[in-house]
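Lab notes, practical 5.
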Amino acid sequence: MTDEQPGSEETAPLRASGDDSWMPPREQPPPHAWTPPGPPPAPQSSPYAVEPEPARASYVPLGTQSYPVQHRAPDPPRGRVSGWVWPLVSVLALVIGLIGGVFGGAAYENIRSNSTEGRVSGGLGEAGTVSKAPLRPGNRSVASVAQRLLPSTIQVLAQYQGRKDGATGSGFVLDRSGHYITNNHVVADAVENHGPIEIVDENGDKYDAKVVGRSPTYDLAVLYVAGGPQLPPASLGSAQVLRVGDQVVAFGSPLGLSSTVTAGIVSALNRPVTTSDTGADSSYINAVQTDAAINPGNSGGPLVDLTGQVVGVNSAIATTGSTTGESGNIGVGFAIPIDQVKITADQILRTGEARYPVIGATVDTLGATEDVGAKILKVNSEGPAAKGGLRKGDVVTEVAGEKVADGIALIVAIRAHQPGDTIPFTVRRGGSQMSLRITLGSQVG
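Output from the prediction step:
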């Protein structure tokens, strides 16, 4: 059973049959150190800082003024300024103006970058994301996808349990404004303990990163690198067009091995899993399941279709009874659908935080119901569920037309929608079946 605070659904971690457990890629040994041939390129400043602009100072432009010409007798000869002085004065004025402009512009950029912490007021719409498929129909192969996406894939190094680079994960370039996507569980310990976070590009160059915002609920985080490398953004697709059997390619740094590519197929869709083993911070996702090899260190890396578009974010792997998260790939990995990633990233860029939908009820996640469905253990009196007519003891069997097998499936089904959505619930109450409509509430997380 679970016990929920008002307006939230807190649940126990998912345990599969046979004592299997879903475990996210966790702490990794330090990544193998390597240096690319030749001297590394010097870091380049990014021209893509796109934040709300502060009030600008007013500048008076340098120019010339004209006066009326008066015809009169010439004055007696007097001391005159040599003809070469005026060109010199003009040149000096121009130089002074240029110097002032350079320093003024630098000061403005510094103020702008330090005041917004990587946020973009217009969200993804202003950040410079890419959605056009980069590969033509005649050029769709794993090799072509790898060539396109490797420059957009990064390694993430974060402090974990007091060790710098104690956690290694992956990520990808979100937009042209210096933002990157990774998993929350890769950077959570570093954020909570004010530890360092770095990204590593394909050339092996490291850059300090900071977290713009994160969502433990969806296991996502948005990183920002000021003045970082000018890497091409990954093209964002949709998981809704996927079919079981479609070929996909996974990118990341499994076991600290950067720029690794593995391939497989979509082996299942809409798979309810959790990416955490602690009930308080459980992240339930309606995952894309794949047999592409995913190992610890792949967390946060992109799952890509053969058009070259990102369809998911690698987040969890299945293990065979291990509780340490050290098990390797066994052909069952899970990715967060990119559709949810875009929604959460947009919220974080706009406000610095993410929100998820709630109904204000406690659901049984231990599978205690005799029949298929999710049993409601408690309904908060002022929550959306109570207002929609849901009661303690009801068993939810469908949400928005999709069957609900248990409590985990109910949570995932709700979180597949957005706060403010009004969706139909099919409920079994006693021996009767009824339909309710509930408007989802909202909570930060």
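Observations recorded by the TA: The first strand starts at residue 15 and ends at 16. The mean pLDDT is 76.
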